Amino acid sequence: MADLSEVPLGDLMKELQRRLECTNKPKKHLILIGPPGCGKGTQSPIIKNEHCLCHLATGDMLRAAVAAQTKLGVEAKKAMEAGALVSDEIVVGLIKEALERPECSRGFILDGFPRTLEQARKLDNMLNSKGAGIDAVLDFDVPDSLLVERVTGRWIHPASGRSYHSRFAPPKVPGRDDVTGEPLVQRKDDNADTLKNRLKAFHAQTKPVIDYYRSKVVKLEAERAPEAVSKQIREALSKIKHLDD
């Protein structure tokens, strides 16, 4: 158990108040779907904090399971070392395990899964076995032309993860991090040709998933300013009644 003796009383009281408020939050199981540069990374922390949800990014979950050498992590490592894809069963198993964690007691935001129709069906089967289900699918809709502009203009400070954009959020000094002054870099896949191929694959894969969840899909005008997108999300989630409530 963590030693709380050095934590200021005010911080402890704030955390206690937050946890008490969370117990009254309706449960929500959400899926976020959107192409690279759509704004999911901006909105996820906001949704997580406002609704007391855990954020499940399947790529991060796999890496953590492999590092911790859990049963599923060992299976995933074997697949990766053999050059094979990690099975859907392993990923769904990781999500199932996450549901038992205290931070996921009010529900989750699922990011990066499901990507295919078969994955969506397996996810639903697992949730149904636990008496749960997906409450809403937030579809971050942005024109491809705008995504190309967003992504190709991104610059990253590798050490901290701080991101900039040559047009929308430029650094104070071109090519330099605002805090450290160190050089910024572009990711290898942040170029127009690579992005267009990724978008083509994204649309082909996710259309069946969106069709599958059609009655639960909330299409967001995600090309708008972040504050406007947040407002759309709040309005949509305020209307959701969870299956368990």
UniProtKB/TrEMBL annotation:
Q: Which family does the record claim for this protein? A: Belongs to the adenylate kinase family.
Q: Which NCBIfam families match?
A: adk, PRK00279.1-3
Residue ranges occupied by any Adenylate kinase active site lid domain in the UniProt entry = 154-189
Q: Which residues cross the membrane?
A: none
Catalysed reaction(s) here are:
AMP + ATP = 2 ADP
A single MF term (Gene Ontology)? ATP binding
- Protein name listed in UniProt: adenylate kinase
Q: Which Pfam families match?
A: ADK, ADK_lid
Q: What is its EC number?
A: 2.7.4.3
Function according to Swiss-Prot or TrEMBL: Catalyzes the reversible transfer of the terminal phosphate group between ATP and AMP. Plays an important role in cellular energy homeostasis and in adenine nucleotide metabolism.
InterPro entries annotated for this entry?
Adenyl_kin_sub (IPR006259), Adenylat/UMP-CMP_kin (IPR000850), Adenylat_kinase_CS (IPR033690), Adenylate_kinase_lid-dom (IPR007862), P-loop_NTPase (IPR027417)
Keyword presence, Nucleotidyltransferase: no
> Which species is the source of this protein?
Tetradesmus obliquus
Please name the PANTHER family in this protein's record. Answer: NUCLEOTIDE KINASE (PTHR23359)
Q: Which UniProt keywords apply?
A: Kinase, Nucleotide-binding, Transferase
Identify the domain of life.
Eukaryota
Top class in the EC scheme: transferase
